[in-house]
Amino acid sequence: MSARTRPITTTAGTRPFAFSEAALAECKAIMARYPEGRSKSALLPILHIAQSENDGWLSVNAMDAVAHVMGLQHIEVYEVASFYSMYNLHPVGTYMLDVCRTTPCMLRGSDDLITHLEKKLGVHVGETTKDGMFTLKGVECLGSCGTAPMLQCGAVFHENLTNERADALIDELRARNSRTNYTDR
Amino acid sequence: MGRKLLFEHIDKPGIRGLEGYRANGGYRSVEKALKTMSPEAVLEEVKKSGLRGRGGAGFPTGLKWSFLAKPEGVPRYLVVNADESEPGTFKDRYLMERIPHILIEGMITSSFALGAKVSYIYIRGEYFYVARILEQAVAEALAAGWLGKNILGSGFDHEIHVQVGAGAYICGEETALLESLEGKRGNPRIKPPFPAVKGLYDCPTVVNNVETIAAVVPIVNDGGEEYAKIGIGKSTGTKLISAGGNIKRPGVYEIDLGITCDEFINSDEFCGGVEGRAFKAVVPGGSSVPIVPYELFLKTPAGENRLMTYESLADGGFAQGTMLGSGGFYAYNDAQCIVRSTWNHTRFYHHESCGQCSPCREGTGWMEKVLHRLEHGEGRTEDIDLLWDIQRKIEGNTICPLGDAAAWPVASAIRHFRDEFEYHVHHRQKVKDPKHFEKEPFALSRKFATA
């Protein structure tokens, strides 16, 4: 959601955040990709790493750590984090289910899929299940129009979904119970 | 069946890896360019080919390259726009996922022509897994000496980096993309200066779409004239079209520019016709281009067969034509509601407006609100003229084309399907059922009912 800068969460962000050694090394490597004096270019990739290391969302502490590592003002990080829709500014469930709802998906039944998922999970779009397992998010075109309807969970696209296939996916994810991130390899 | 230039080897085993790609003639264009051609000669071939930007605008690539400023001692950059976010478009993802080395090869050859020592692929964040495939391809190319210092002993150095975005349609606009690549919010810049003079890090930069850069490979291999033999007039070569919506065979097709629209949508080689019902409307080039009734997609206003070319699709202007755009093609069957789809389009643009320009920031939200109430049985007759008025005030009044892109789908929907909007005002109870046209399709506009 770009048009309105989304508010960052200050209340739930009190838990300390520190990059793991491996993540810190990756951040440094990314910053070295750019010409001298241009390491701010690494901000988006590094925010992705921070989000993956902070249970899938960016707390103020996580963003401040990014500012520290990159030598940026805090506001330079906040303003970017609040612009891009893949950065979650509030706590999220173990799994983010990003369901595409843009027109080409709509033509192939994404409205029905969303209704089904809302019923199955007992939440509305934008909410997290009570057990903290799933956050259901409506997103805009994911470039998967030929295999619609679909959803993204972590780095994986789940395509050509029917209600049955969506149910099976949810059951499988619930049984696995381990966080997925966009940065997963 | 037309020639396949980009997809010729796409189904070969192992084509995703360097070995398989090489075994099918990969990296020949780099050898040819670096060993036997000057940068100017490569540019000349691209000019001769007539290649036009495949991201949507269709600007001649050779001309764009020739604008690149070349001040002494200042680095130049090539940035590949892999931010593919135009609704309906998934061709670049398919290409990068299946045959990533064709993009890397095209980047090396193009960078040689442009004199760029560093290039970046800016790929949308949602395609993280594709970014991993590209990173792997870059690593393979580097290890095999196709990248790095003194490539093939030519003295040409080149490195490629893959950069992921984080979810913002606007970053497909080239100056917003550059802002984002610099680690900022994706707010488009005021032009001029154009990126060719002042782009990434204030240096001369060429920004090209994935498919455009991939097309440089066959152009250099076979020569620009050979490429230009395919197609009609100023629409040369092949184009990737990603087809979705209510068709029988969704997928990505490489077509010769110039086949008829009828062949594309109805033949079994491509879309295979409609699934179950009748076609109602078509968006041929991504959600930003005008929607047209099916009959007007098949025939120009003069009654001639419409062709899949930049010119033929635009025949009739905005009143009766549309655009080839990015090749994000989707078709509607008669169960679909144009008001609902227009509301959906508008929600997308409202969500994706960067917020810099008031007409777009406020206008897209306003249109969404009005369309929402029309579609949910709370509309008023004056809402239709209100919508028309709002879109007119957005178009042309914003820094970047997102404003126009938000206005055109609304304008074209009202222009061609006004009676469907009126139906929503007069049948408020009926349209409260989200599938109001499924059992009882809306009779097509009088003007086109018998075409």
What is this structure's SSE topology?
The complex is a heterodimer of chains A (185) and B (451).
Chain A: H1 21-31, H2 43-52, H3 60-70, H4 74-81, E1 95-100, H5 103-107, H6 110-121, E2 134-139, E3 151-153, E4 156-158, H7 163-176
Parallel strand pairs in A: 1-2
Antiparallel strand pairs in A: 1-3, 3-4
Helix pairs in contact in A: 2-3, 3-4
Chain B: H1 18-23, H2 28-36, H3 39-49, H4 61-66, E1 77-82, H5 91-98, H6 100-114, E2 118-123, H7 128-143, E3 159-164, H8 174-181, E4 205-209, H9 210-222, H10 224-228, E5 231-232, E6 235-236, E7 238-245, E8 251-256, H11 261-266, E9 279-283, E10 292-293, H12 294-298, H13 310-314, H14 317-320, E11 328-333, H15 338-352, H16 358-375, H17 381-394, H18 402-426
Parallel strand pairs in B: 1-2, 1-4, 2-3, 7-11
Antiparallel strand pairs in B: 5-6, 7-8, 9-10, 9-11
Offer a quick outline of the entry:
The complex is a heterodimer of chains A (185) and B (451). With 185 residues, chain A is an alpha+beta fold. Helices cover 38% and strands 10% of the residues of chain A.
Explain what this protein looks like in three dimensions.
- The complex is a heterodimer of chains A (185) and B (451).
- Chain A has 185 residues and is α+β, with helices and mostly antiparallel strands.
- Chain A is built from 7 helices and 4 strands; from the N terminus they run H-H-H-H-E-H-H-E-E-E-H.
- In chain A, helix 2 (43-52) crosses helix 3 and helix 3 packs across helix 4.
- The longest helix of chain A has 14 residues, at 163-176.
- The model of chain A has no long low-confidence stretch (mean pLDDT 94).
- Chain B folds into 3 domains: 18-229, 3-Layer(aba) Sandwich (Rossmann fold), CATH 3.40.50.11540; 232-333, Ubiquitin-like (UB roll) (Roll), CATH 3.10.20.600; 338-448, NADH-ubiquinone oxidoreductase 51kDa subunit, iron-sulphur binding domain (de novo design (two linked rop proteins)), CATH 1.20.1440.
- In chain B, the strands form 3 sheets. In chain B, strands 8-7-11-9-10 form a 5-stranded mixed beta sheet. Chain B has a 4-stranded parallel beta sheet with strand order 3-2-1-4, with helices on both faces. Chain B has a two-stranded antiparallel ribbon with strand order 5-6.
- The longest helix of chain B has 25 residues, at 402-426.
- Mean pLDDT of chain B is 96; it is low at 445-451.
